[in-house]
Design the sequence.
């Protein structure tokens, strides 16, 4: 399956047919730090993503000090 | 995972609340948290206008969305920092947001006010870019509110922002910052407007989810100067603690506000006067903003 | 890298001091830091005996070594926690250290005092093992000192231990812990001896280096119950901050002691009385140690 | 070269003829968390270790709460 990462935008291929949390663990991303987006929807960490899915892991951190 | 409210399929899990929500119920949860913040700290009333400082990012546009939807008399304020493409794009997001909803937006350019945009200020001062930028933003927000006759500025600071600021203050035990840190700062001088942070109860993942689910077109890219900022290292440290112990950030910030902040509030008020140059409030003769503008002028 | 003192080849770099030392000059630096701690907080005098709580680890044996070398009248106190091989080995290290230097060592077994060793206490209380263990150690240290007629207990807590404890207290804003945390606690009751931490200015890397360079045979293995302890997660967080910004731990602890601790010291003293069972000091009727012993007895 | 790690005690082989700090980086060990021991001596992070050296990386963290 295809995973879209941001800042900078890039794509990686990982195995699908498993839970989102397993994908996050493989990519060493803490669940608290991203939105998991599939199409127009948010996906929770316990949901299984298909090998044909495309998901975006969008970082939620805003930086610098206001 | 099921929505805590309706039992339908959940869109978002909130570990620190030990809960999950579907999209509509999350949006309602989010707005209730903002309402609770406003109520608890008497931040806003519907009788008076509020200036919402917007950057084009998820937090400030989510805030503007909630306040406008809830019937507050909002005006947006966009401060154009002049940071290359980042500022061009973020301004366009704010203008599109305001236009689509028919909301008023005030734009001020830092370059017009200070004499140079943030990248030049950064070079001139040789300080971290967030330093001169933050100083300019705080000054210009307050002055814009006074000029527009608006008694309160709302900013999009979220739980993570506040926890990271607190973390930085605590690591160095900056007692003045600790005394000042609050979701709501009252006006302590006729030329200082009130400042409120209605998102302080919501994590940045929650504000991002709200903005996404509300289809708000915000700028996902980060300010190019934020890379390597200390506050980001502090957010990362807090995120690891949060991962090991959900609620850690919340407990850290709320415990401070409830139990420790009173210990730091100083008995004595600082002596506030007006800047000899611009007339805005300062503790010295010349305010920090005018000193910065002088420094930029000398270098120019 | 060269020794700051003599210009010879360095054995150890101390990034937070922006310095490096050869082995003999590091040992002198280390001892001077202990002397400075003792002087600044009036921890010890050479006229009175001091009970040094030793675990067999690097910190407490390094402390004992420095104090004995500097002419203090030291007695070691080893509390046998009954934690399998770990306790057997650590006791042997303490006994060998004492024997080689001809220093007196008092040994107390937790199992004799509480009615069961730490692993059983852990099962009975269903609390984290460090909780019942710490409680027993604090109680038994104080009682042993009283029984031996020694007015002060010195422990091997180092800068990292103190910073990690502070970090934990701050994350939850435990204001009572914050008020109590200090390198030196005066006696507030005739049955409470003074408690001092002469290594609080030295990092655990520095105490390890001192122990190694002095050829002290200490136990490198960790207590098997310490795995996963919260204090270790906090030490790791602090170590990452230290790596990014050398001196971060020092500034965090020392800034607290200088600037923030006074804000937490409570105006009111707590009401101290004597335990109805054992006569030791408590704020309730029965002290926490006797309650723990009761709990162990009921389960036995 | 041979590197001895502790808690639990184990050995790994890594390339030598480079600075200690490069070895630590490869093993993802923060310099503040270990003593670097070669024989009876401590070694600083800027020193080069030979391919024939044996070094011990001894953790300095003491755990639990006293």
Sequence:
């Amino acid at each position: 399956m295809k995973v879209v990462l941001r800042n900078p935008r890039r794509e990686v291929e990982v195995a699908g047919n498993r839970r989102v949390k397993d994908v996050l663990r493989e990519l060493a991303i803490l669940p608290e730090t991203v939105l998991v987006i599939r199409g127009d929807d948010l996906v929770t960490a316990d949901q299984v993503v298909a090998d044909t899915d495309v998901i975006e892991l969008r970082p939620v951190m805003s930086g610098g000090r206001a | 995972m099921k929505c805590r409210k309706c039992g339908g399929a959940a869109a978002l899990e909130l570990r620190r609340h030990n809960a999950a929500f579907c999209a509509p119920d999350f949006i309602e949860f989010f707005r209730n948290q903002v309402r609770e913040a406003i109520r608890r700290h008497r931040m806003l009333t519907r009788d008076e206008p509020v200036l919402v400082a917007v950057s084009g990012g998820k937090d400030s546009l989510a805030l503007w969305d909630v306040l406008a939807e809830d019937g507050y008399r909002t005006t947006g304020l966009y401060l154009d920092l002049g940071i290359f493409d980042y500022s061009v794009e973020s301004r366009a997001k704010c203008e599109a947001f305001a236009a689509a909803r028919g909301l008023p937006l005030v734009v001020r350019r830092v370059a017009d006010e200070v004499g140079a945009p943030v990248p030049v200020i950064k070079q001139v001062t040789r300080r971290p870019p967030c330093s001169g930028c933050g100083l300019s933003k705080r000054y210009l927000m307050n002055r814009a509110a006074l000029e527009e006759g608006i008694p309160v500025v709302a900013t999009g600071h979220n739980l993570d922002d506040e926890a990271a600021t607190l973390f930085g203050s605590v690591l160095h035990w900056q007692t003045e910052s600790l005394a000042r840190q609050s979701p709501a700062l009252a006006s302590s001088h006729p030329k200082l407007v009130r400042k409120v942070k209605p998102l302080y109860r919501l994590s940045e993942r929650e504000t991002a989810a709200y903005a996404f689910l509300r289809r708000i077109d915000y700028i996902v890219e980060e300010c190019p100067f934020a890379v390597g900022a200390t506050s980001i290292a502090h957010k990362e440290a807090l995120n690891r603690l949060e991962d090991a112990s959900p609620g850690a950030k919340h407990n850290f910030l709320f415990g401070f506000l409830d139990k420790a902040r009173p210990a730091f509030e100083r008995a004595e008020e600082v002596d506030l006067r007006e800047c000899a140059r611009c007339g805005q409030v300062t503790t010295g003769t010349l305010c920090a903003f005018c000193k910065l503008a002088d420094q930029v002028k000398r270098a120019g």
Remarks:
- The radius of gyration of chain A is 12 Å.
- Residues 18 and 46 of chain A are 9 Å apart (CA to CA).
